[in-house]
């Protein structure tokens, strides 16, 4: 009888020794929407249609500037994409000229930087808001000159007869918009 | 007769001591530093919790005149998670023993990635001199979360970390 009791006790001890329990803790992190856009470097670009070197020759009909870079950071929910539009928000392009914009391939950054709509090979004529880059999702270009999309501005003479001398200031606004 | 009685008393003491148990307290709700420079990603891309973000207490440890070892394992169960997010844990302290020198923790002091599969984290060692029923309280755990980027879809990511104690 004593042996039976002892065996039962030892069995109970053994079973208790193999018990297994657990406890929990949670980790939770919230990502918020981010939409930031800027042009590097600051300041204006100057495009000058200079005088011909020899009297009787035509003006240089195309001048361009590639000193500005488009930087942005975008964070979106699944299924959401964004685009960047460019427009002339102040000033007017002088008669007889066209101001065009093309984006070069992205440099640096990460994520889905989008699809170029206005390329250097196929630039858009700036005026009312037009999409220059589309289908951006979660992405960042990197910061400053040398990162993101180099902007190529070009001035073309579209009508020689309408040209007048002078200086015109044009402001271009870039907007990052949800599709 | 006396020997039998003594044995009975000792066995009863052992049985009265509860089996090993674990309690866990302290969730982690990290917040991301807002982006201040356009074109940049989140910085830092890795967040680290307080050194004692979670406290683990193991109790009901030991047995009369028998050295015991217990394994603490860790795993996570995702409510909503992203594979780019890597969560690690490490033990940053020894905890407080109910009887000095009778119980101690070993291992787990280097960051260990928490996966969905239960993996050994650290070990609790109980001296044979204990009578059983002892505890190691407030073992501090620190977390680290890497892979934070704007590339990840905007939402709340959450997971539940499970610590399990098993006698070896």
TrEMBL record, chain A:
This is DUF4402 domain-containing protein. Residues 1-19 form the signal peptide. It comes from the Bacteria. Keywords: Signal.
Automatic annotation (TrEMBL), chain B:
It comes from the Bacteria. This is DUF4402 domain-containing protein. The lineage of its organism: Bacteria, Pseudomonadati, Bacteroidota, Cytophagia, Cytophagales.
